């Protein structure tokens, strides 16, 4: 439990009352039951067990998406390793918005009776739930267009020419319409140049850099360098990617690291983000590493950069992710998939971007960064095709 958070102190929580509640709502999250050879224990005695391994931690507030849906109430441990958010999401999916709000209201009423939260905190959580979009369908009307100033390019697409001809490459991207770019590399090594050397070239081309890609090692070993590089570009986000060899414990450790460095970066006006591939969605003992990352990171400190191609490549529906984790996806990597599973220019493949973008407000996305890992016939041509198609898209 987060000992620094205020909570009622005049009564101890009624463990049996909470245990009954949790038995009903947290069954999908519980660990494997005890074997028949082990002695039976009461619900009150079991309340000390961790029923929600890899669940939401106490590092955040009770948060249901965008700013207006953040209750500001600490996400307290309920006494058994489960938190308020674990109890809420154990009831998902929700049939509609009313069902969601009703579920939250019933849960908070019980927690208030058990002195886990105050009446004021209960009201704040219910207001946040009512202000959220959870359970509300977001149909694609076909009348909306992405704001041009939110479209950008991941410069990995044009990596073949960024090292040898950065000015010409960046100028060509600006000429076809791009206004934002996301360079990736490591501290002081972006396509063979330092941040202070590359940043003026990007600016001279008329492009802004809202986000940069760096390595986890940079965050762990050279945070001052990360901050300096982000400020050289004027970036508000720094993002990392993971490893296909990580265990669930590794994901948990990385989540803790992101929370720690995220707090320092936030003081510098920068947000750390995690960019997925497909391996994060492979379940280990029934749990996906991606879920550990999202649940164990503080939404006020850590963002997710959702790569739409990589999610779709392993059968994960981006819309379902957004419904499950509203407000967590500040950035999209907008990449398309050909019928054979290979990369395609945006708008020329099989991914239904209109359906995904209809959930933009729920997702919390602010930047749509196009990318093609294997561009044809060349990076600039591919990037410009993707830009034109994305600008023409209506959702």
What does this structure look like?
The chain has 395 residues and is an alpha/beta fold. It is 39% helix and 13% strand. It has two domains: 15-131, no CATH class; 148-392, Alpha-Beta Barrel (TIM Barrel). Helix 8 runs parallel beside helix 10 (223-233). It is globular, with a radius of gyration of 23 Å.
How would you describe this structure in keywords?
395 residues; disordered N terminus
What general form does the structure show?
A: globular
Question: Could you tell me the strand content as a percent range?
Answer: 5-15%
The largest sheet has its strands arranged as 4-3-14-11-10-7-6-5
Per DSSP E runs of 2 or more residues, the count of β-strands stands at 14
CATH level 4 superfamily of the largest domain: Divalent-metal-dependent TIM barrel enzymes
Write down the Rg. Answer: 23 Å
**Residue share in helices?**
25-40%
Q: Uncertain regions: pLDDT < 50 for 5+ in a row?
A: 1-13, 26-47
Distance between the termini: 43 Å
In total, the number of domains comes to: 2
What is the fold-level CATH name, i.e. the topology of the largest domain?
TIM Barrel
Q: What structural category arises from helix and sheet content?
A: alpha/beta
Oligomer status: single chain
- The overall pLDDT, averaged over residues, is 91
Keywords: Isomerase, Signal
Protein name: Sugar phosphate isomerase/epimerase
Domain Xylose isomerase-like TIM barrel: 172-358
Pfam families: AP_endonuc_2
Please write out the topology.
Layout: H1 15-25, H2 43-46, E1 61-63, E2 70-74, H3 84-89, H4 97-113, H5 119-131, E3 151-154, H6 159-162, H7 166-175, E4 181-182, H8 195-204, E5 211-213, H9 216-221, H10 223-233, E6 237-241, H11 248-267, E7 271-275, E8 283-284, E9 287-288, H12 289-296, E10 302-307, H13 308-313, H14 318-324, E11 329-334, E12 336-337, E13 343-344, H15 353-357, H16 360-363, E14 367-370, H17 379-392
Domain Xylose isomerase-like TIM barrel: 172-358
Pfam family, one: AP_endonuc_2
GO molecular function: isomerase activity
